[in-house]
TrEMBL record:
It comes from Anopheles darlingi (Mosquito). The keyword GTP-binding applies. Required for KRAS signaling regulation and modulation of cell proliferation. Regulator of KRAS prenylation, and probably prenylation of other small GTPases. Required for lymphocyte development and function. Not required for myeloid cell development. Coiled coil: none annotated. GO terms for molecular function: GTP binding; GTPase activity. Pfam families: Roc. PANTHER family: DRAB5-RELATED (PTHR24073). This is Rab-like protein 3. Keywords: GTP-binding, Nucleotide-binding. Belongs to the small GTPase superfamily. Rab family.
Amino acid sequence: MTAIDKVRVLVVGDSGVGKTCLTHLIANHEPLTSPGWTVGASVEVKLHEYKEGTTSQNTFFIELWDVGGSISHKNTRGVFFNPTHGIILVHDLTNRKSHENLQRWLVEILNKDGKDVLKGNELLDIDPEQFLGSTQIPILVIGTKLDMLDDAHKQKILNRTSVGSIAEQCGADEICLNCHEARSLASGTTDSVKLARFFDKVIERKYYNRETGRKYATNYGGSSMATGPFGNLPVSGSSLAPSLGTFSYLTSNSVTESLS
Ligand SMILES: Nc1nc2c(ncn2[C@@H]2O[C@H](COP(=O)(O)OP(=O)(O)OP(=O)(O)O)[C@@H](O)[C@H]2O)c(=O)[nH]1
């Protein structure tokens, strides 16, 4: 019998940047071309192999919380931010403003009352490195709609360094992709490796002792139940692969919590 630990990753960014398409691609390995507008938050779940191929390999649930980006829900979406074990900051490569706004998203998540960094509605000049220092929450920056750039612009983006970008300021990796293309995150690609490394970091921060590298003990009540993303779920234990069938509704259907 087995129990599977979970981490909660927020997927945030302005409305329309492609968070729902991206979340679907990460969780299902296939594109979603006609997403609905997200009201509140929708959750997709995937199984991730921590440090795959090493002696430390272990299976975890990753909950991907796709938080609706509409400004009209700004005052209420804070309910989705706790706890936060990792953050995926999403921007649209064809919309520079959506990249500039990522700093606001960080402020909103990490400093919910905006104290010291917001003056009225204006963002004061903050240093994300210092701002993040105490939290050490792993961050990944993803630029979407790569397919909508002309070749010259695409090359420029793919060849640019992260100097001065929010990714550099946060010490984060950066991925640029087309969410409508399954191959964008196909296993073995550089971007899929970056994504796996990010999930490993999130898991490590929550479940592993930094000094010893050992996993903290987790204590579950029933040995025939796994703590699933939305509560306890029966697990067949002898092999993980068959149990995936039991969980398939979690990965194929989104759960939407409406705030309105
Ligand atoms: N061409 C192209 N279109 C994309 C890509 N990613 C998303 N889109 C499109 O962008 C639009 C918005 O995508 P969503 O995933 O709903 O965006 P969102 O960030 O979840 O939006 P909210 O729910 O309002 O927060 C949809 O029409 C998507 O099909 C991409 O990589 N390339």
